[in-house]
Amino acid sequence: MIQAFAAAFRTPDLRRKLLFTMAIMAIYRLGTFIPAPFVSITNVRACMDQSGTGDFLSMVNLFSGGAMTQLSVFSLGIMPYITSSIIIQLMRVVIPRFEELHKEGQSGTAKLTEYTRYLTIGLAVLQSAVVVSVANTQLFQGCSVDPFPDATPLKYALTILTMTAGTGLIMWLAELVTENGVGQGMSILIFTGIAASFPTMLIQVTQSNGGWGAALLVLALILAIVVVVVFVEQSQRRIPVQYAKRVVGRRTYGGSTTYLPIRINMANVIPVIFASSILMLPSMISTFGDPASGWVQWINRYLHSGAPLYFVLFAAMIFAFAFFYTSITFNTEEVADNMKRYGGFIPGIRAGRPTAEYLKYVSSRLTWVGATYLTIIAMVPVIVFSQMGIMGGGFGGTSIIILVGVGLQTVKDINSQLQQRHYDGFLR
């Protein structure tokens, strides 16, 4: 990785792209420290000293690099965009028009991207309204001071508008990185937010959970998870594909042998985000109920992040969503049709429907392994930290999978661009 970045900085074009990406990352981090209008920084810091972030908004705060607990203009981070992207992908199963747009190619993809942006803005308005309304009840868990002193409905509306505009600005910055920088813009900003939160969380562990001994234990567990994640994320099943020869005019095409790579974890970290988001809903709803009522007490007792029922539901949802999301993203019938259209076939398997059934059989077996891997990676840190009393929620498997995955993909992009600029032919 270090050699790839060093070689990239020696190439003028790539150096400009890397510096541009770093500048966008710096702007993104700067925005997390700019408070939203009518927010009292003194009261916010007092609330942060009095209490931590609740389970309801912990993931949003992690992905935003701590901007949520600072009530900054980038408080929502890119979570609205992530949520809207997932919803649009799921709508392809429900709405045939969305599936048709997906098959239309570049024009259909552009239309789906437009829908995603509109939905992102709508979700940003909703989420910013929730953040403002529960700031001193759930976000800071009953803080004694109000982060919005002397607030009026108009001031609340302006704060919501500012946070929504911050989400729109983040979308634009991510697109700039994708077009003019290195890597995928949204992934880079997610990486920036999570990586920026790690030092602060490590300091919190040393101050409240047994000093450097607990910190070393956390680092050892993180290192072990990183090794497992790198190994699994790089693993794939390669299915051989043979292309028949075709004569077009005076030229002959095909006749080559290649392979179809199928990753073990095709769903990536999406099932974990799904499961976490759904399990956060009861906690969010309970904040608007009477604390003395039975259903609120039941939720607070059995559905918090350290309860056994929470662990069971979390694992079951991750496992189920892994199969569900893989079936959406890896359409075996579409892959088989594309292979047949270009004269490709799997040796020993007939083209068309038999190929689709074979690919579905292979992908389902791999998904069992991938779902088990995701469940273990997501559950082990939570269980270990909960049993030892370590407040290290940000060190979960979700954040590590994202960091490692984005890092590996960025290095691959840099290496591919280096090969394009420093290609050595057969004749020298």
UniProtKB/TrEMBL annotation:
<keyword id="KW-0812">Transmembrane</keyword>
<comment type="function">
    <text>The central subunit of the protein translocation channel SecYEG. Consists of two halves formed by TMs 1-5 and 6-10. These two domains form a lateral gate at the front which open onto the bilayer between TMs 2 and 7, and are clamped together by SecE at the back. The channel is closed by both a pore ring composed of hydrophobic SecY resides and a short helix (helix 2A) on the extracellular side of the membrane which forms a plug. The plug probably moves laterally to allow the channel to open. The ring and the pore may move independently.</text>
</comment>
<dbReference type="GO" id="GO:0043952">
    <property type="term" value="P:protein transport by the Sec complex"/>
</dbReference>
<dbReference type="GO" id="GO:0005886">
    <property type="term" value="C:plasma membrane"/>
</dbReference>
<feature type="transmembrane region" description="Helical">
    <location>
        <begin position="186"/>
        <end position="205"/>
    </location>
</feature>
<keyword id="KW-0811">Translocation</keyword>
<dbReference type="InterPro" id="IPR030659">
    <property type="entry name" value="SecY_CS"/>
</dbReference>
<feature type="transmembrane region" description="Helical">
    <location>
        <begin position="309"/>
        <end position="331"/>
    </location>
</feature>
<dbReference type="InterPro" id="IPR026593">
    <property type="entry name" value="SecY"/>
</dbReference>
<keyword id="KW-0472">Membrane</keyword>
<feature type="transmembrane region" description="Helical">
    <location>
        <begin position="115"/>
        <end position="136"/>
    </location>
</feature>
<dbReference type="Pfam" id="PF00344">
    <property type="entry name" value="SecY"/>
</dbReference>
<dbReference type="InterPro" id="IPR002208">
    <property type="entry name" value="SecY/SEC61-alpha"/>
</dbReference>
<dbReference type="GO" id="GO:0065002">
    <property type="term" value="P:intracellular protein transmembrane transport"/>
</dbReference>
<feature type="transmembrane region" description="Helical">
    <location>
        <begin position="156"/>
        <end position="174"/>
    </location>
</feature>
<protein>
    <recommendedName>
        <fullName>Protein translocase subunit SecY</fullName>
    </recommendedName>
</protein>
<keyword id="KW-1133">Transmembrane helix</keyword>
<feature type="transmembrane region" description="Helical">
    <location>
        <begin position="18"/>
        <end position="38"/>
    </location>
</feature>
<feature type="transmembrane region" description="Helical">
    <location>
        <begin position="390"/>
        <end position="411"/>
    </location>
</feature>
<comment type="subunit">
    <text>Component of the Sec protein translocase complex. Heterotrimer consisting of SecY, SecE and SecG subunits. The heterotrimers can form oligomers, although 1 heterotrimer is thought to be able to translocate proteins. Interacts with the ribosome. Interacts with SecDF, and other proteins may be involved. Interacts with SecA.</text>
</comment>
<comment type="similarity">
    <text>Belongs to the SecY/SEC61-alpha family.</text>
</comment>
<feature type="transmembrane region" description="Helical">
    <location>
        <begin position="71"/>
        <end position="95"/>
    </location>
</feature>
<dbReference type="InterPro" id="IPR023201">
    <property type="entry name" value="SecY_dom_sf"/>
</dbReference>
<keyword id="KW-0653">Protein transport</keyword>
<dbReference type="GO" id="GO:0006605">
    <property type="term" value="P:protein targeting"/>
</dbReference>
<feature type="transmembrane region" description="Helical">
    <location>
        <begin position="269"/>
        <end position="289"/>
    </location>
</feature>
<keyword id="KW-1003">Cell membrane</keyword>
<feature type="transmembrane region" description="Helical">
    <location>
        <begin position="211"/>
        <end position="232"/>
    </location>
</feature>
<keyword id="KW-0813">Transport</keyword>
<feature type="transmembrane region" description="Helical">
    <location>
        <begin position="366"/>
        <end position="384"/>
    </location>
</feature>
